[in-house]
Design goal:
The protein is α/β, with parallel strands linked by helices. The protein has 14 helices and 11 strands. The strands form 2 sheets. A 7-stranded mixed beta sheet has the order 8-7-6-5-11-10-9. Helix 2 packs across helix 3, helix 3 packs antiparallel against helix 4 and helix 4 runs antiparallel to helix 5. The chain starts with 8 loop residues before the first helix and ends in a 6-residue tail after the last helix.
C-alpha cells in the first residue's frame, strides 16, 4: 500500500484505469490496459473457431475451444505488438505516449500533446502494420522449420502457426487501406497536409477516403457474391457490417473533429459576445434602469470594488421590481452571480479560449478589454455552437 487517499491524483488515475480495463503493466515504460470489451471478441473467436478446430481435430474434444482461446490470445499479442510499434516509433520523435489500450476493435495508442509533421505522422502510423508483416514473416519461418509429421500435436501446431501468419497479414493489409481511422488514412492525410499546409484539411480528406473504403469493403465482401448468385454466410455478413459500422463511425468522428479545429481560429471572445456594460455592485435597481435607458438592449454586469465582474443582472427579475422600490433595492438582488473568475479577455480566441473556458464553471462569462472594463457577455452555448457548427439552441 502506498498510503494514497481517495482524493489524491494517483488514486483517481488508478480508479479511471480500472474503470477502463485491466492494467497489464508497462512495456518500455508505456502503460498497457486490457479493456473489458476485449473479452467480447475473445468469446466471438472461441465460438466461431472452436467448432472448426473440433471438426478438423476430433481427438481434441472440448479442448478445441481451449485452442480457439489460445488463438484469441495470439491475436491479442499481434495487436499489442502493432500498438507498441506505434509507441516506439513516436518515442523516436520525442512524442510521449500516454497509454496503449487493447479492446474490442483491436486497440489504440493514445499520445499526449506533441508537434507532428506529415512525414513523422506517416512513419508512426505505418510502423504498426510493418510490425504485423514482421510477425507474419517470423510465423512463416516457424512453419518452414516445423518437422513434417502426422502426429496430432504437430498438425495442430502447424495449423496455429499458419493461422498466426495469415492473421498478421490480414491485420497489416487491412490497416494500410487508405482511409481513417485505419493507419493507411495517415497517408492520405499527409499528402493533403503537405499540399494544403493544414493537417485538419488533410484529416477531412482522409476521413472521406475512409468512408469510400467502407463502401468498397461492403460492396466487395457482401455485394459482389450476391450479384454473382452466391449465398452469404450469416456470421461473415454480421461481422462485416459490424466492422463497417466501426470504420464509418471512426471516419465520421475524424471529419467532425478536424472541422471543429478548422473553425477554432475564427472563434474569439470579442466576436461571440453580446454587448454589455459594467456597473458597481453597490448600485441600486434605479441606477441600473438609468444605465439601460442610455444603453438599451445591453447586458449589465455588476463589478466589485476591485473591478472584477461578479454578477449579471437578470432582465426579468429587474422588471419585477416596483418603481417605488427601485431606489432602495440593490441591483445584486436582481442579478445572477458569475462563477469565481468568470470573465475572459476579449482578445482570447481559438484553442486558447476553449482551454480558458474549460477551467471555469458556469455558463456565462463577462468579457473585458485590455483596461479591464466590461465590453460584453459571453454565453457557453454560443461558444459550443461556434465550435461545433450547430445553431444556437433557442
Amino acid at each position: 500500500m502506498n498510503g494514497e487517499q481517495g482524493n489524491q491524483p494517483g488514486h483517481q488515475e488508478a480508479s479511471r484505469t480500472r474503470r477502463e480495463g485491466i492494467p497489464l503493466g508497462r512495456i518500455a515504460g508505456v502503460p498497457v490496459i486490457l479493456a473489458y470489451s476485449w473479452f467480447l471478441i475473445a468469446a466471438f473467436t472461441v465460438i466461431v473457431f472452436g467448432p472448426f478446430i473440433q471438426m478438423n481435430f476430433p481427438r481434441l474434444g472440448a479442448g478445441a475451444y481451449l485452442i480457439a482461446f489460445l488463438y484469441a490470445l495470439l491475436l491479442l499479442f499481434s495487436v499489442l505488438i502493432h500498438e507498441l510499434a506505434h509507441a516506439l516509433a513516436a518515442r523516436g520523435f520525442g512524442w510521449p505516449t500516454q497509454k496503449i489500450v487493447l479492446n474490442l476493435w483491436g486497440g489504440h495508442t493514445q499520445f499526449e500533446n506533441f508537434t507532428a509533421t506529415p512525414w513523422r505522422s506517416l512513419v508512426v502510423a505505418f510502423s504498426g502494420p510493418a510490425a504485423n508483416f514482421v510477425l507474419a514473416g517470423l510465423g512463416w519461418l516457424l512453419v518452414m522449420v516445423l518437422p513434417q509429421g502426422s502426429s496430432a500435436n504437430l498438425e495442430l501446431l502447424s495449423a496455429l502457426a499458419n493461422i498466426f501468419v495469415w492473421a498478421n497479414l490480414l491485420i497489416g493489409v487491412f490497416n494500410v487501406l487508405p482511409g481513417l481511422p485505419l493507419d493507411g488514412g495517415r497517408l492520405v492525410e499527409s499528402i493533403f497536409w503537405q499540399i494544403t499546409g493544414s493537417q485538419e484539411k488533410g484529416t477531412v480528406a482522409a476521413g472521406w477516403a475512409g468512408r469510400v473504403v467502407v463502401v468498397l469493403l461492403v460492396v466487395g465482401v457482401l455485394g459482389v457474391p450476391l450479384l454473382r448468385g452466391g449465398t452469404l454466410n450469416i456470421q461473415t455478413a454480421l461481422f462485416m457490417l459490424l466492422v463497417a459500422g466501426f470504420l464509418w463511425l471512426g471516419a465520421s468522428q475524424a471529419i467532425s473533429a478536424a472541422r471543429m479545429r478548422l473553425r477554432l481560429p475564427a472563434i474569439s471572445a470579442g466576436a461571440l459576445s453580446t454587448p454589455a456594460v459594467g456597473q458597481s455592485d453597490e448600485s441600486s435597481v434605479a441606477q441600473v434602469l438609468g444605465l439601460l435607458s442610455n444603453h438599451p438592449g445591453v447586458s449589465v454586469v455588476l463589478c466589485g470594488r476591485d473591478g472584477q465582474p461578479g454578477y449579471v443582472v437578470d432582465p426579468l427579475a429587474l422588471a419585477s421590481v416596483p418603481l417605488t422600490a427601485a431606489a432602495s433595492t440593490l441591483a445584486t438582488a436582481v442579478a445572477n452571480p458569475l462563477a469565481p473568475g468568470g470573465y475572459v479577455p476579449e482578445s482570447a480566441s481559438g484553442q486558447e479560449l476553449i482551454q480558458y473556458l474549460a477551467q471555469l464553471s458556469g455558463n456565462e462569462y463577462a468579457v473585458i478589454d485590455s483596461r479591464g472594463l466590461v465590453t460584453g457577455l459571453l454565453r457557453q452555448q454560443v461558444v459550443v455552437a461556434a465550435v461545433t457548427g450547430k445553431p444556437v439552441p433557442e
